[in-house]
């Protein structure tokens, strides 16, 4: 399959590498002038989590092909869009006249209504997914990794198409395990408020390490997520299993479970540490999450006093 990764970010590079190793042709679209800045290869210092819980170390100089233009009559089969949620509008603005016959996989966080966010793209060509990887760049070296699981979901019938099945088969053949999500809109929104709670804790504690070592700070994260669930439902989402756990299980219990997961010798801890070490999550990247949730809470008239009390950390 001929695949275009939109941008040369962390997720695009990680999954572009995995897809090329699986026998696909992979290119990267970058903004005009950026190809010369990036160079013709990427130094990989990553862990491939498809084969083991701790990940297989990969140290490789990987040659990549970048292009700074995209004509409407291109011959790409698939375009994978993985950008910061606040960059999705500009990605759609660029792609809506350049989709051609390609399937589009939206592969990132979304806090706006997903269907509305991509309404300028052909609905029948859109599929939805979410990666389980991350890290950061140190100049031209990518530090990070990914686990075996990938989430694919349904938004307004998007999973009941041949294009969705083709994307699912592509990722499965590349060695990934697919977790199917029936109500992906609600899933994305819950994931977003979970990130918002973690980012508040990260900002308050000064580092990811300090956050995960502090049970009181993690309990506060759980309380923040619990408080933000009504914002999700006011937007039209459904409170599902993860939200129910945050709402009804005591915060001390959930905080303990999160601490065990994020301080163990596993890929999740490794990925978050690499993001911290490389500075991937700068102040703006962290603050955007709670800031956007708070803005919607105020717009929808949902009381979030705990989040408001933490506003000085992300204002």
What does this structure look like?
It holds the Pfam family ApbA. It comes from Brevibacterium aurantiacum. The chain contains 13 helices and 12 strands. It is 46% helix and 21% strand. It has 2 domains: 181 residues, NAD(P)-binding Rossmann-like Domain (Rossmann fold, 3-Layer(aba) Sandwich); 128 residues, no CATH class. Helix 4 links the parallel strand 7 and strand 8. It is an alpha/beta fold. The strands form 2 sheets. The chain has an 8-stranded mixed beta sheet, with helices on both faces. The protein has a 4-stranded mixed beta sheet with strand order 4-3-10-9, with helices on both faces. The longest helix has 22 residues. Helix 6 crosses helix 12 and helix 8 crosses helix 10.
Précis, in short:
This protein has 315 residues and is of the alpha/beta class. It has helices at residues 10-21, 34-38, 88-95, 114-117, 162-173, 184-205, 208-213, 215-234, 241-248, 251-263, 267-277, 283-300, 305-309, and strands at residues 2-6, 25-29, 41-49, 56-63, 66-67, 78-81, 103-106, 126-130, 133-138, 141-147, 149-153, 177-181.
């Amino acid at each position: 399959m001929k695949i275009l990764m939109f941008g040369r970010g962390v997720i695009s590079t990680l999954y572009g590498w995995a897809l090329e190793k699986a026998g696909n042709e992979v290119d990267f679209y970058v903004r005009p002038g950026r190809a010369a800045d990036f160079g013709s290869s990427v130094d990989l210092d990553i862990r491939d989590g498809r084969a083991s819980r701790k990940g297989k170390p990969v140290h490789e100089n990987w040659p990549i092909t970048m292009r700074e233009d995209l004509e409407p009559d291109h011959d790409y089969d698939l375009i994978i869009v993985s950008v910061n949620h606040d960059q999705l509008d500009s990605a759609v603005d660029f792609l809506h006249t350049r989709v051609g016959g390609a399937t589009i996989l939206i592969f990132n966080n979304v806090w706006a209504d997903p269907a509305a966010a991509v309404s300028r793209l052909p609905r029948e060509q859109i599929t939805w997914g979410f990666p389980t990887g991350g890290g950061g760049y140190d100049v031209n070296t990518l530090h990070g990794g990914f686990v075996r699981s990938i989430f694919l979901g349904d938004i307004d019938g998007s999973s009941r198409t041949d294009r969705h099945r083709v994307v699912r088969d592509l990722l499965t053949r590349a060695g990934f395990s697919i977790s199917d999500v029936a109500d992906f809109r609600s899933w994305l929104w819950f994931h977003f408020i979970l990130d918002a709670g973690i980012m508040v804790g990260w900002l308050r504690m000064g580092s990811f390490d300090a956050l995960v070592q502090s049970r009181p700070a993690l309990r506060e994260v759980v309380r923040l997520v619990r408080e933000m669930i009504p914002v999700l439902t006011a937007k039209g989402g459904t409170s599902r299993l993860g939200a129910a756990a945050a709402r009804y299980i005591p915060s001390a219990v959930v905080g303990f479970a999160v601490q065990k997961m994020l301080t163990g010798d596993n890929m999740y801890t490794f990925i978050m540490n690499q993001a911290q070490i490389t500075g991937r999550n700068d102040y703006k990247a962290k603050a955007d999450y709670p800031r956007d949730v708070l803005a919607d809470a105020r717009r929808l008239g949902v009381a979030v006093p705990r989040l408001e009390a933490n506003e000085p950390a992300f204002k």
